[in-house]
Amino acid sequence: MKLFSTRDNNHKSIYKDAIFQGLTPDGGLYFPESFPDMSDFIKNCHGMSFNSIAEHIVYELIKDETSKDSVKRIVNNAFTFKPEIMRVSEDISILELYTGPTCAFKDYGASFLASSMEEFLGDRKEKAVILAATSGDTGSAVAKAFEGKDNIEVVILYPSGKVSPLQEKQLTTIGGNITALEVKGTFDDCQKMVKEAFGNKDLKSKVNITSANSINIGRLVPQSLYYIYAYSQLKPGSDLMFTVPSGNFGNLTAGLFAKKWGLPVKQFIAATNNNKIVPEFLDSGIYNPRPSVQTPSNAMDVGAPSNFERMMTMFDSNVENFRKVIKGDFVNDEDTIKTMQRYYSERGQILDPHTAVGILATERFQQANSEAKKYNSLVLSTAHPGKFVEVVEDAIKVSPQLPAALSSLLNKEKVSTVIGNEYSELEKFLVTNY
Ligand SMILES: *Cc1c(COP(=O)(O)O)cnc(C)c1O
After folding, report:
1. Rounded CA separation 367/310 (Å)
2. Is any atom of ligand 1 closer than 6 Å to the C-beta of 185?
3. Atom 15 in ligand 1: residue holding the nearest Cα
4. What is the DSSP letter of 281?
5. N- or C-end of the chain: fewer Cβ atoms within 10 A?
6. Among the residues of 211-318, which ranges form H helices?
7. For the Tryptophan synthase beta chain-like PALP domain, which residue ranges apply (predicted)?
8. Beta bridge mates, 2
């Protein structure tokens, strides 16, 4: 898979190197040089398993740099879970992406990146230390994905006392090659410390630190797979519409990749909360990133979406090209909560706030475009409602059941290493331990 930088088209890489880079050296994002036409395969993939589809697509993408057996290992080590489709109303189904180890769609990207790194580190005979900061939600997907991986250590920084009890358990009970650093400071402190580490050449000459954040191309590729799998589960010849609850727009960008490979998607809906930077851009042509605002769907509280740059490359920086495939909409806090209440009272359906944003945006689109009711409408359901207990309880006065993968953590003992919020403390910890 040949890749280039969104900032400097002369900087090139391939998949198995780019995953260890994260960002390109000039601060841009890796973008595929070409999109192989896989429409014949996609047309004929009905009824196939998720992993068989994944093996085929991934091999097609990286066959110039690795073997079929290696792709099989990467896929089957990554995916011990698969998406489910569930109808939630007459005209809308959700694609449940929360059946992985931490009950959110980020498990797909993190698991696949982890198994890719494990595979290719074996070739290089190297060890790597994954370094990440988390405000609570996303770090656990990374931590869990890398659990027990050969030649990889993971160090996650989180702000002490500022993550929910369940989130803390998710970070601090894995053990083994996963270390939770409990920082006496804020999430911004954690992020600053990690950033400084990546910018420090002296440290990097001593410890092979690597990032696993969501802009990594190794997290995007696997997210394309479930769009294709969803198609494989529907009636052949279906016209598809996907609604993507979005924050950094990785999920949507992955869907656009799938379309480029030949998936017959009629329409994408980019659904945001009040952080409506992209819907605004689609409407006015003006891109105005700004500080994020807090909402009930807080995993989408992003004011400067990192994948916007990839979408600009894809659409030649022309808003008209975006508009041909993507419709933007945003859902405010009140309507998010009302949608959760309505689905619970009318259908007994408990939605997480992110999925609720997607569902209301879909309903509005269907009301405004009669054609759209003929499409197979799928809303990406990005998290299990049990992950957002407080918001759900507040909205519908009922406690969502915690999935077993999460409830079993509550009895486990927390193990963390407490450090101050100075970069020097992080450096000392890394140099001493790795
Ligand atoms: C990360 C996340 C999103 C946003 O996904 P992007 O790829 O950043 O657009 C939506 N919902 C949940 C639950 C998330 O964790």
Report:
1. 31
2. no
3. 299
4. H
5. C
6. 217-232, 250-260, 277-284, 308-314
7. 96-379
8. 14
Give yes or no: 106 in active site.
Answer: yes
Q: Which of 53, 138, 151 is nearest to 104 (CA)?
A: 138
Do the domain assignments include residue 281? Answer: yes
Direct distance between the N- and C-terminal alpha carbons of the chain, in angstroms, rounded to an integer: 32
Note the helical H segments in 261-368.
277-284, 308-314, 319-325, 333-347, 353-368
289 within domain boundaries: yes
d(CA 341, CA 332): 14
Domain count, the chain: 1
Q: What is the value of pTM for the model shown?
A: 0.95
Bridge pairing between strands 2-5 and 30-32 = antiparallel
d(CA 109, CA 316) in angstroms, rounded, equals: 26
C-beta of 300 in contact with ligand 1 (< 6 A): yes
Q: 106: CA distance to ligand 1 center in Å?
A: 7
Whether residue 152 lies inside any domain: the answer is no
Question: How does pLDDT run along the chain (434 residues), one tens digit per residue?
Answer: 999 999 998 999 999 999 999 889 888 999 999 999 999 999 999 999 999 999 999 999 999 999 999 999 999 999 999 999 999 999 999 999 999 999 999 999 999 999 999 999 987 778 899 999 998 878 999 999 999 998 999 999 999 998 888 889 999 999 999 999 999 999 889 999 999 999 899 999 999 999 898 899 999 999 999 999 999 999 877 789 999 999 999 999 999 999 999 999 999 999 999 999 999 999 999 999 999 999 999 999 999 999 999 999 999 999 999 999 999 999 999 999 999 999 999 999 999 999 999 999 999 999 999 989 899 999 999 999 998 989 999 999 999 988 888 889 989 999 999 999 999 999 999 999 99
How many Cα neighbours within 13 Å face the side chain of 348? Answer: 0
Strands (E), 54-194: 84-87, 93-96, 128-133, 152-159, 178-183
Kindly report the CATH number assigned to the domain that includes residue 225. 3.40.50.1100
Is there a contact between 88 and 67 (Cβ–Cβ < 8 Å)?
A: no
* Ligand 1 center from residue 62 Cα (angstroms): 26
Q: How far is the CA of 246 from the centre of ligand 1 (A)?
A: 6
List the domain range (segments joined by +) for residue 396.
83-103+218-403
